[in-house]
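Researcher: We're reviewing a set of sequences before deciding which ones to prioritize for further study. For each one, I'd like a predicted 3D structure that I can look through quickly. This is GNAT family N-acetyltransferase. If possible, include the structure in token form so it fits the rest of the review sheet.
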Amino acid sequence: MAIEVRTYTDADAGALADLLNRNAYGPAEFGTTLTAEQVRQVFAERRITECIVGDDGTELRGCIALAIGSGRRAAAPHERFAGLFVIDDRYRNSMLAGKLFREVFADRIRAGGVRTLRIEANPANVRAFPLYLRVGFRARPGARPDEDGYVELVSHLPGVIDDLIRANPGADVDEVAVKLNWRMMRAGRDVDPAAGVVVRDGRLVVDYPIDTGDLELTAVVDHELGTVLALEQTSGTPIASPAEATVSAPEPCSERERIALADGHALVIFDDGTIELHRNEPGRAPTVLLRERWPVALGEDAPAVRRQGHRRRIRVHEVTDAQAQRWQLVADDDAVTREVRIGHEGHAIDLVTSPNRDVVALTAPWVTMRVAEHALRDDGGEWRGGPVLPGLWPNDWGDFEAAREPLAATAAWWSDGITSMRLGWTGIARADSRSAPALHSAHPGAEVHLRIELGAETPPLTTNPEGLHRVTAALRRRRVGASSTAEPALVVDTAPTRLDTVAERGTVRELHYGEQQLRVATDAGLIDWRVGDTTVLRGPYPSATPFGSLATRRTGLWCTPLAARDDADQGVEWAEDREALRWTEATIGTGPQPGSWQLEALGASGLRVRADAAAAETAIHLVPDTGGAGEFVISVLGRRWRVDPGHPWRGAVDAAAIVLRDGRALVLVPTGARAELFLRAMTTGVLVTALAAGPLDLRMHVVESRAQAERFLASAARGGEA
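Model: Here's the predicted structure for GNAT family N-acetyltransferase, in token form for your review sheet.
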């Protein structure tokens, strides 16, 4: 049956929900189906401006949309995020994908006003990612997937074509629009995400090779601004080159007000309207505990937590008040205003958003604590809480948070062991990932009010979040193949010992100590590690396979530099082993040189990895051999928790144990400045990233069971060895 590619209408909401549900897209991936009304809510909150669907007369078979909001970021007024790209499985090898892209491009060209399209894409998605590259989307050189697993790709083709049409008055926009298709970019089927993006004369530029059939040219474009710098035509009727469009780079935001609070905290107001709660610490940059972008009007803009494209310039006025410190925040021609109030000797912060009479205001305060705990109080006064593991607790709906039901809670509590804060609010609250929570007006014109109380006591937790279990006593369980249920005594040797090299084959070294057998690729990482008959970790080296959001993975453990984990836009990035530090043989008592890593044995079943990336962050990444979804015991702020397998989540912890394929457990304890483990639990496996702001020491021990791992973590939390 022929498929009609057409513009989405509101009457399609139910059919679009069915398409998303049967393709496990959005919350359906985790077993929660969408309704037509929830689709409408997502369209409104993300400010979807165009949507094209493929309709076979019975069902919608595909769709693609352009929106102001991506779910985590919001685009500038002259930009859109492309997303909601879904095609039924039976049509994925058809021409439907190309037709959807062609039509949404053509619609955008006809409408005008948008110069840049952005996509957040998983580079390991072998079906969609190459298509994005073929239609002209490009990444900055060296771009890594962000904490959520996405690389941001950019296409300035709409602006390029708009400039060409304006420079050639005889061009018919409708005639040009219908010639646009996904084949006009001269690119192969397997291209580098940064292909054609280079530095020239101090500017990052991208070459767009365009072939419409009767016109062949290359446009040289400023990659940051999207302006055409040069045009090189090789065939077709000569056309005029456009003048460079006037597009200004956004000015960096700066502090407008820093308000001292209790116990070394501060509230910082930036000139773009962003508000941050800081904790000042001697000898290091302030720790950002909470960040909130400027609130938006529903249907006019989209809320953002990582990056806000529409840059306001706000005015801050201090208000005289005998009862509290007050500041009013105003942005010209904006539908909302804000007020900040400080009381109780700097322990209480009130953030009040006041929309115009006919406007529903949306705010998205984002808690940025790392190793932390979180709790919610229900209507009956009971507190439920546990470690912060976004995706599990709090639950995470990704780009579809607008479809969530209102939060059935009256207060929230967060703590990273140093700062604790209790939050209350007026307005309709919604939980999602690290939102504190997200809030919106109860009706048009209604205020949204978030109250933060610093120094709040730990609430009495009466229930645990689903999938989390507080460890109060070690669980006794026999590992696969064990002949007795009795737990052997836990004996761990922590004295480092040099590993013996038993063979060298090119860049591969075979190392040995007791029952431990290892293979190291000196330019990539630790290929595999066995302890007796237990495979602890392994990679397909020299072959490479996708894993999670890594387009390629060759080894079981690798060490890399990383950008700062606190970066608001990226968070903890994914890094491939193609960026690996060099391996050097260890000298006991001497750490690695900057830019390298080392291995040492810790008794018969332990391994010590030391690395120094000489960068913002040193990272050690590893993929334990779990055989699928991982089963964890984690240590957070001195408490231990069992985490059920099966549901994707991620989060920072102090230490962890992961059950291996054969029932043994791998215990991981990092040491270093701001050391943590960042865990990513996926249905296909586990990625562990140990982090430190400087040299990093990761100690790994293989123990007989999860029960022994729990005792080991309990001992480590008390500051001793197991």
